[in-house]
Amino acid sequence: xxxxxxxxxxxxxxxxxxxxxxxxxxxxxxxxxxxxxxxxxxxxxxxxxxxxxxxxxxxxxxxxxxxxxxxxxxxxxxxxxxxxxxxxxxxxxxxxxxxxxxxxxxxxxxxxxxxxxxxxxxxxxxxxxxxxxxxxxxxxxxxxxxxxxxxxxxxxxxxxxxxxxxxxxxxxxxxxxxxxxxx
Length: 183
Prior knowledge:
The protein is mainly α. It has one domain (4-180): Orthogonal Bundle (Helix Hairpins). The chain is built from 3 helices and no strands. It has helices spanning 4-74, 83-162, 169-180. α1 (4-74) runs antiparallel to α2 and α1 crosses α3. The longest helix is centred in the last third of the chain and has 80 residues, at 83-162. The radius of gyration is 38 Å and the shape is rod-shaped.
């Protein structure tokens, strides 16, 4: 038959082991969340880089459109003398106007896409920062759990060192039975 201190020691040990098991499970969950956040940060970083590439490309294309537009605007139609020349000149002027209108519409579409990609980039950057903040919070929480597990390990070691707790499962069962009145 164990002493009261032995039974109390067994109860403390069970509490320590139960709490430690819960903390280890929580620590594993935190590590999984950290992996997921890190993967999401990487993905969002790639999106930001891609947006930068697209925006640079749009700006370059915008410059080309402006250059072409200026060249076409500066083209002068030849003076027409005959009816045929006047018809050809009118047709060329119409094509010139259509081309300039198409360039203008393309330019507007590119401006809109540039704005859209800039907005996507800003959203991704905001999420990256939120995820980094989340990682920092998880790291702090993980440290608290780690410290608590170390404390529990020390407490268990101290209980075993004092000899308050027997080392066998049979003794643990006996202590449990004694507490429940089944001894």
